[in-house]
Every structure is written in structure tokens, then in C-alpha cells.
Input
Amino acid sequence: MNADAVQTIQIIPVARITVVNPRVRNKKVFKEIVDNIARLGLKRPITVTKYEAPDGGFLYDLVCGQGRLEAYQVLGQTEIPALVVAADEEDCAIMSLVENFARRQHHAIDLLHDIEGLKRRGYDEAEIAQKTALTIEYVKAVIRLLENGEHRLLRAAESGHIPVSIAVEIAEAEDTEIQSILQQAYEKKLLRGRRLMIAKRLIERRRRQGKGFKSGGQSREQPLSSTALIRAYREDVDRKRVLIRKSNATRDRLIFITEAMRKLLSEENFVTLLRAESLDTLPKNLAERIQAWAQA
Output
């Protein structure tokens, strides 16, 4: 970026500012911005670049500060303090992207798209890492995933659910190799417990609904091969077998408890002790089952 770009703070009309690259904002976070500005005022001016308008005045393109600008609009303000920079379109785009990295609470997919934007503008991995304060290994991994359209894996990695290195391995592996990758990650203690379950669900969703996120309509289902169909059948059979085992175990426990209670309740001394302690009542279902067994 041009280090000699002229920067001045001016009070400019809100109505003459255009948001060139608008973003969808979290309603809760935006409300906090509005409340904070209403209570304390604007702590940091927005950043804009200006150009001459047909009416002889000036119009402005927003570089940084969409949330602050929109908060001013909600609060009914007609003017806003702005840092007016004399920079070309390329420099403004880079400034906007770099500020997105500096946010404390950025959306994962926005961060990834910003890396993609820098790459598309001709910056190499080392330059992107320097501008964004990220490691070059992370940047390289993100770019590889972006080039493959792996937005599901990217979001999971950015959210901390799976390591970036594991996401890259999954993206480049065949379906038959993914289970081995998860096993190795488990053995290396990279995926354990809840993170491992999240990774398995993610992989299944990725297989069924695709690598990326669709902005509208239903996700296109991947065509099922014979191998995938057999695998789905086996998985369903395995789930049913687990349910059967749990059902049998629950039945055996119930039979044991019922028989034990029946024998104990046949002992007069035990019943007398229960009555003395006011413990001579049973849940209705258990009492009926014991009575039925006694009459059998």
C-alpha cells in the first residue's frame, strides 16, 4: 500500500457514503455496537475514500467501518466522523480485507473469503501471511482447501473443531481413506471425545450434501455408488444391532431387579423393616410386574 497516502479526518454526510462490499451482520453483535455508540459515542472514525460527484460535491466509498456506519444510520445521525484516505481502488480493497482479519470476533467464512480475495489479487502465501499476521503454513492450508471448494472443512477448522492439517488430509483423501485419517488423528490425540464426534458428523454431511455451502435452495445430493449404498446399509445394520444389544441389556436388568425384589418381598422380616422405615411402597409398574410374576 502507498505509505504516502494522505489521511484526514472529516465530518461527512452519511447519505453520501456507499458500502462497496456489504456484509451480513449478526443481529446481537450489531445491537451491541449501536448501544455502545449511543452510550459512549464513536471511539474510532470510519475510513472512506472520496471522489467527485456530478453535482460538484463529493461522494464516498466505505473502506472500513460498516458496522459503525450502520449504527449511526439506526441512531438517526446524518453525519459521521471519517478518515478520508487518498488511495486507489486496489489499496482500498486491501485495507478492507486486512481490517477484517483484525476483528476480534470475525465470521470464519468471511476470514476464509478474505484470504481468497488476497490470493486472487496476486499476493503469494508469504505476503498474505505477513499482511494478516497468520502463519504461512495456515495460509497455504486454507488456500488449498479454498481451491478445492472445501468450505465445510474450512469452517470446522476455523471454529477449532478439527485441526487444519487434518482438514487438508481429509480434503485430499478418497472416501475409503478418511476412516484411517480419523484413526491416526485419534492416536495422535488430535481428535478426541466431542471433537471426534463433530468430525464424523461433518464428514457424513460433506459426503451427502457436498463440500461447500449453497446460498439458496436445497443442497444437491451426491449420487450414490454401489459401494456407498453398501456402506450405508451396513451402517444402518450396525446401528440396529447396537439398539438390540441395548434393549436386551435393559430387559436383563429389569428381569434381575424384578426377581430380586420378588424374593426380598417374600421375606417377612425384610417387609417389616421396610414398613418401619416407611419404604413399603413401590413404583406402580414394578409392583404390577412383581405381582404378575408371583401369580404365575
Observations:
- The two ends are 90 Å apart (CA to CA).
- The longest helix spans residues 226-265.
- Residues 1-88 form a domain with the Conserved hypothetical protein from pyrococcus furiosus pfu- 392566-001, ParB domain fold (CATH 3.90.1530.10).
- The CA atoms of residues 50 and 96 lie 15 Å apart.
